[in-house]
Amino acid sequence: MIKLPIVTDCSVKSCSFNQNGCSAAAMTMGEDGCVTFIDLGIKGGSGQQAHVGACQRTDCAHNSDLECAAGAVEVGKDTAKCLTYQAA
Predict the structure, then answer these.
(1) Over the chain, what HEC string results?
(2) Given 30, 33, 52, 63, which residue has the most CB atoms within 10 angstroms?
(3) pLDDT band at 39 (very low <50, low <70, confident <90, very high)
């Protein structure tokens, strides 16, 4: 089992899981950005630093059996893109 990378930074302030950083217990990265992103106007999450579990970016160099193998992940821009993404 790989160690799940932490989300070191998320600049998407409109996400309900962003409480000075991602506070979702675990998040999923998809083709178009963070799949866990949700804008409900209220804050939620575990309050702890998030980890990245599943990754749907099969073209990413960090994707190992559909799990993220990067040391850490940054999420940003208006569309919650993975800023750690590297083409395979």
Answers:
(1) CCCCCEEEEECCCCCCCECCCECCCEEEEECCEECCCCCCCCCCCCCCCCEEEEECCCCECCEECCEECCCEEEEECCCCEECCCCEC
(2) 52
(3) very high
Q: State the distance between the two ends of the chain, measured CA to CA, in whole angstroms.
A: 21
Tokens found for residue 57 = 């970016």
Tokens of 85: 């993404």
> What confidence tens digit (pLDDT) does each residue in 26-38 have?
999 999 899 999 9
Distance CA 51, CA 85 (A): 15
| pTM, to two decimals | 0.86
Q: Which residues make Cβ contacts (< 8 Å) with residue 1, sequence separation at least 6?
A: none
